[in-house]
Write a structure and sequence with these properties.
By secondary structure, this protein is of the alpha+beta class. Helix content is about 25%, strand content about 20%. A hairpin with a 7-residue loop joins strand 8 and strand 9 (about 245).
Length: about 350
């Protein structure tokens, strides 16, 4: 009998040298490590990055304070009706993550998707300069300091995100290392605060409810910050249909490739399925009484500007590897994915 294959491991890249040197060879080594991870797995832990020490902990502090507000207070900044504006507070059951794309006549499909609700609450934040996606803030006196911190945190994440895009461009051997950053002003990104509520473990196990079903991200890249709960799983690319845990690593960022970068790279980089399932259980008895721990996470989605055209980049096309995707704007692809969520 052949030995069982080892489960896929999520690689780790030390990003410290990128910020600390202008030496091209040192940067190229990091860039190639990053691209290799994005090719083979599509997910990678980024350690020793440039975000200020303590900033991630502070972000979780503010996230917990926001979700601890009463429903009435959180509803002072509700997610606008429909899918077009992706900002503000989404209460449990409003949003349904899926891999389903819009085909035009979607009402029955939407109803079917919601037969198993996602039990989480969300607060979405964008650039203050994106007038097409206006932020929905709670009043400043409801949680003083929240808006100021989250606006600054959004900017700090984009500073790092821009460097990661440069590293990917270098690792893909692009002549213009600003090829990707030119398509990303930073004003179409999205900062998302997530709170997964405690739920009966049996309901989650039997799929009567869900946390976040398997899906790919429709951004360019996602930076994810996790608390210490666990529950994120990534599809094993060597064993499709099987998933491995992306266990929390203190102060590390979980970086993953989104659909846009997969299309740009002509499938050289991999937008990998992932989901949030059963975290470790709180000590609340056995059987039907067992409850999951609540979980907090903060993804930062980096998206190209709406008018940017996503078409295979030159270094990823050859005579024996022609372009697999027709050009599409970010806005059009976003509509295909986002319109099924609400």
């Amino acid at each position: 009998m052949a030995p069982a294959a080892c489960p896929m491991k999520i690689p780790m890249v030390d990003f410290s040298s990128w910020a600390n040197t202008q030496d091209r060879l040192s940067r190229l080594r990091i860039a190639r490590e990053l691209v290799e991870a994005c090719q083979t797995v599509g997910f990678v832990y980024i350690v020793n990055h440039s975000l200020p020490e303590g900033l991630i902990d502070e972000a979780f502090h503010w996230s917990r304070r926001f979700f601890a507000l009463s429903e009435q207070e959180k509803m002072k900044a509700p997610h606008p009706e429909g899918w077009a504006i992706h900002r503000g507070y989404s209460w449990p059951g409003l949003e349904k993550v899926s891999q389903t794309m819009s085909t035009g006549d979607d009402e029955e499909e939407r109803k079917k998707l919601r037969e198993v609700p996602d039990v989480k609450e969300v607060f979405d934040i964008g650039s203050e300069e994106n007038t097409a996606q206006p932020n929905q803030w709670i009043p400043d006196d409801t949680l003083p300091g929240f808006r100021v911190f989250m606006t600054d945190f959004y900017s700090e994440c984009w500073k790092l995100g821009r460097e990661l895009l440069r590293a990917v461009a270098m690792g893909l051997d692009l002549e213009d290392e600003e090829y990707l950053t030119k398509q990303h002003s930073g004003h179409n990104n999205q900062l998302r605060l997530l709170h997964y509520l405690p739920v009966p473990a049996e309901d989650l196990k039997s799929e009567r409810i869900a946390r976040c079903p398997a899906h790919t991200d429709w951004s360019s890249m996602t930076m994810l910050f996790q608390d210490n709960c666990g529950g994120l799983e990534v599809e094993d690319v060597t064993n499709p249909g099987a998933f491995v845990a992306a266990d929390p690593v203190k102060d590390a960022i979980v970086l993953n490739v989104g659909d846009l970068l997969q299309m740009w790279s002509n499938d050289r980089l991999r937008s990998t399925n992932h989901r949030v399932r059963m975290p470790p259980l709180a000590d609340r008895g056995e059987g039907a009484g067992r409850m999951t721990r609540e979980r907090y996470s903060i993804p930062y989605f980096m998206s190209a500007d709406p008018a940017s055209v996503i078409e295979c980049i030159p270094s990823c096309i050859s005579a024996d590897r022609p372009a697999k995707y027709n050009p599409i704007t970010q806005a059009d692809y976003n509509k295909m994915r986002a319109s099924m969520m609400y």
